[in-house]
Design a protein that fits this description.
The protein is mainly α and 113 residues long. The chain is built from four helices and no strands. The protein has a domain of 76 residues: Orthogonal Bundle (Cytochrome Bc1 Complex, Chain D, domain 2), CATH 1.10.760.
Length: 113
């Protein structure tokens, strides 16, 4: 086949590649948002730092239908006595939409079994 010749397969392959790239974007974008909003100063994905690991949070709230909204509220308003004696301070610089995006990303960090 000559170089540059397009077939239905090349178009399908191109769409598949774009689709696969887009699937990874929300996770990367949310991790970048977590970095910009100072979440990563106290949390990491896999191990506790000042606050709990995001994987531990995701595991605790697995199957909880109200977890997304509850975690989004905690991101903005802070929390006390949920993971020990160190309180999580409020982060009013995070919009409600950003808080939901962060909560959705944190809940997706549940480790594979």
């Amino acid at each position: 086949m000559p170089v540059g010749r397009r077939t239905p397969w090349t178009a399908a392959l191109a769409l598949l590649c774009v689709g696969l790239l887009c699937v990874g974007l929300p996770a990367a974008a949310s991790e970048q948002l977590a970095a910009r909003k100072a979440c990563l100063g106290c949390h990491t994905v896999a191990s506790a730092r000042v606050g709990p690991a995001f994987q531990a949070v995701a595991t605790r709230y697995a199957g909880d239908a109200g977890a997304l909204e509850r975690l989004a509220r905690k991101v903005r308003e802070g929390s006390r006595d949920t993971w020990g004696v160190v309180p999580m301070p409020p982060n009013p610089r995070v919009s409600e939409a950003e808080a939901r995006e962060l909560a959705r990303w944190v809940l997706a960090q549940r480790p594979a079994r």
